[in-house]
Amino acid sequence: MEYHNPVLLKETVDGLNIKPDGIYVDVTFGGGGHSKEILNRLGPNGKLFAFDQDEDALANALPDERFELINENFRFIKRFLRFHNVRQVDGILADLGVSSHQFDVAERGFSTRFDAELDMRMSQKNDLSAFKVVNEYDEANLRRVFFDYGELKNAPAIARTILEYRENEEIRNTEQLKHVLGRFLPAHKSHKILAQMYQAIRIEVNQEMDVLKEFLEQSLEVLAPEGRLSVISYHSLEDRLVKRFMKNGMFEGEPEKDFFGNFTVPFKSIGKLIVPSADEIYHNNRARSAKLRIAEKK
Ligand SMILES: C[S@@+](CC[C@H](N)C(=O)[O-])C[C@H]1O[C@@H](n2cnc3c(N)ncnc32)[C@H](O)[C@@H]1O
Predict the structure, then answer these.
(1) FRET partner for 237 with CA separation of 20 to 30 A, picked from 146, 181, 193, 208?
(2) Range with the lowest mean pLDDT among 29-43, 130-144, 180-194?
(3) Alpha carbon distance 168, 214 (integer Å)
(4) Beta strand pairing call for 267-269 and 291-297
């Protein structure tokens, strides 16, 4: 089975405005679709660093001397670039979320399609798993996860129900979780609600919101002036962070004003929000929620 079919391939790499001798970073290597396209556009002196925290992605490493794959979380982008003696780069690409491979391997526990153990760790080194979130979190934290990350209004009832079930038995796998939460899954939209519940647990397990914030802040530090940031997100929580950061260079509040009363912001946005065409979505269903934003460091 194909590891991953890259989304908005041309648009995302176009967004980097590649200079043949430049240094680029693909922080979400996966099956390497975007990385290959970056290498195609680089000259012999160009360089591409890629990150993926999933050991499975290592098997896709590209045999090219201009390429280096780093099996680490991109929340440490600055540290690992420095380790490779790189202080500034010309462009950074992030294609957030989970790969098709991760969804399609039942044991990874990302998909509601299979009856698998609760896992959802993108990195095999991660200590927190879906099992721990569901079986060890207290009621307030469960409520927070389902409310903040699943945007589920009945998060308090969901948390209570999990806690009550846990008094007698652990919740080990998908089928059990579906059974426990069955009354919150009305037949006409059970798939959608279950997907929201899964998304919430996955975001918590992988600390996706904090990781994204740390990454965006560091990307600003490591980008050279006129360096590009090209980010594809797949849900509104991610997109909101990316949008605000590209607009203001911060996640909350308003940026400072200069002497003339203009906001001092670190990025210039390049073009408008890009979404996949109907044709791309037809051929690749995973593209359906993709949103691409591109910015240039001033
Ligand atoms: C949507 S896929 C990327 C697919 C890739 N663009 C391609 O063309 O094959 C996201 C990948 O990023 C990795 N990933 C997600 N969050 C990460 C993080 N915080 N640090 C490192 N890798 C991460 C996942 O393990 C997954 O392999």
Answers:
(1) 181
(2) 180-194
(3) 39
(4) antiparallel
Radius of gyration of the chain (CA): 20
pTM for this one?
A: 0.96
Structure tokens at 212: 């994204």
DSSP E strands, 140-277: 223-233, 267-269
Q: Domain 103-206 has what CATH class?
A: mainly alpha
CA atoms 191, 193, 194, 200: torsion sign? positive
Q: Angle CA(147)–CA(142)–CA(170) in degrees, nearest 5?
A: 140
| 7, 28, 128, 288: residue to mutate for ligand 1 pocket, most atoms within 8 A of CB | 28
Of the pLDDT bands very low, low, confident and very high (cuts 50, 70, 90), residue 133 is very high
Pinpoint the residues of the chain covered by CATH 3.40.50.150: 9-100+208-297
Residues framing ligand 1 (Cβ under 6 A): 4, 6, 28, 30-34, 51-54, 57, 73-75, 95, 97, 99, 122, 211
CATH 1.10.150.170 domain span(s) along the chain: 103-206
Taking CA atoms, 156 is separated from 38, 181, 258, in Å, by: 46, 12, 45
Q: Annotate 6-69 with three-state secondary structure.
A: CCCHHHHHHCCCCCCCCEEEECCCCCCHHHHHHHHHCCCCCEEEEECCCHHHHHHCCCCCCEEE
Ligand 1 binding pocket mutation candidate from 7, 67, 80, 122 (most atoms within 8 A of CB) = 122
Residue 73 alpha carbon to ligand 1 centre in Å: 9
Is residue 281 within 8 A of residue 288, CB to CB? The reply is yes
pLDDT tens-digit series, residues 259-272: 888 888 999 999 99
User: Positive or negative, the Cα torsion across 202, 207, 209, 213?
Assistant: negative
Q: Token pair for residue 19?
A: 């200079």
